[in-house]
Design goal:
The protein is mostly helical. It has helices at about 35-45, 50-55, 65-75, 85-100, 110-115, 135-140; strands spanning about 10-15, 55-60, 105-110. Strands 1-2-3 form a three-stranded parallel β-sheet, covered by helices on one side. The chain starts with 10 loop residues before the first strand and ends with a helix.
């Protein structure tokens, strides 16, 4: 962060969770356990460098994934299986949303936007999951 005496940050968006949601056994080394993820978001939002600016904060949830192309991509990189799923990514989006609510900061809920655009209703299976029919709308959002 720049020194607030020289440059004032008025707005700050934070989007974490997409890579953190990798499975612990994934060889990418990107996994962050949910409790640590929550703690990290709180630390970021309350960091003295950010507080010094008095910036308006926006926490952005991780978007959903389209598991078929993701599986193809990770296998083309030499991995043997999918390294994250929609269900797993949803857990991280849920934590982001809750932290934003708890800390009274703005939230751009990409997860819900993508799910709503794909036609999903509460309680229905997650579009983009490998065991569901392909969803062209979701694929267009995450694969372009």
């Amino acid at each position: 962060m720049p020194d607030p005496e020289h440059t004032k940050v008025r707005f700050l968006t934070i989007l974490f969770g997409s890579n953190d949601a990798c499975f612990a056994e994934a060889k990418t080394g990107q996994h962050v356990p949910l409790d640590a993820y929550r703690e990290n978001l709180v630390k970021l939002l309350t960091h003295p460098s950010i507080k010094a600016h008095g910036a308006r904060l926006l926490l952005v949830t991780s978007p959903s994934v389209e598991e078929r192309p993701l599986e193809h991509r990770v296998k083309s990189q030499g991995y043997t299986k999918l390294n994250r799923t929609n269900e797993r990514t949803k857990q991280y989006a849920d934590v982001s949303r809750q932290v934003a609510l708890d800390m009274n900061v703005g939230c751009v809920d990409l997860w819900k936007v993508f799910m709503n655009r794909s036609g999903r209703r509460e309680g229905q299976p997650l579009p983009g999951s490998i065991d569901q029919p392909e969803n062209d709308t979701l694929r267009g959002l995450v694969c372009t």
